[in-house]
Amino acid sequence: GQGQGAQPGSRPVSPGCQAAGHDPAAYGDGCASYYDQIYPRVRPELVEMLTRLADGAPTLELGLATGRVARALAARGVDMHGIEASAAMLGQFRAHADHAAVAAVAGDIVQLPYRSAFGLVFAVCGTLELLPTRAQQQRCLEAVARV
């Protein structure tokens, strides 16, 4: 978790924000309208750690959601990119005034549409758990290794 008040190892659960059969787009579509209420803030120490790990290189967030982490990193000068399966989440992301600081695309984290290399690729909030099979998780990790 992101440490927004939840106990370690626990996740906030709401009826519309379940894993939706482990479909990343359905998950995001089901909770996009209130996702920022579930995760209201980004811990400064997370932003600091990811900024250090990025070390000036382009950085990719898998499962951008509403962009709260990516936007915080971009505000620190990180060259941020994000990929999100849910059109509703991307809509919420684009509603934030600072969204233009992050290069966001709609897409599948199993088949990353990038050719360029990133110095850091990360995911938060159980993003990989939304992939329903071990084979899809493996393909995602292979795609991450490629970029």
What features would you highlight for this structure?
12% strand; disordered N terminus; 6 helices; 4 strands; alpha/beta; 147 residues
Architecture overview:
With 147 residues, the chain is of the alpha/beta class. It contains six helices and four strands. A four-stranded parallel sheet has the order 3-2-1-4. Strand 1, helix 4 and strand 2 form a beta-alpha-beta unit. The longest helix is centred in the C-terminal third of the chain and has 13 residues. It is globular, with a radius of gyration of 14 Å.
Brief summary:
Helix content is 35%, strand content 12%. It contains 6 helices and 4 strands. The two termini are 25 Å apart.
Distance between the termini: 25 Å
Number-wise, the strands total: 4
Strand content: 5-15%
Roughly how many Å is the radius of gyration?
A: 14 Å
What is the N-to-C succession of helices and strands? HHHEHEHEEH
Number of helices: 6
Largest sheet: 4 strands, parallel
Strand order of the largest sheet: 3-2-1-4
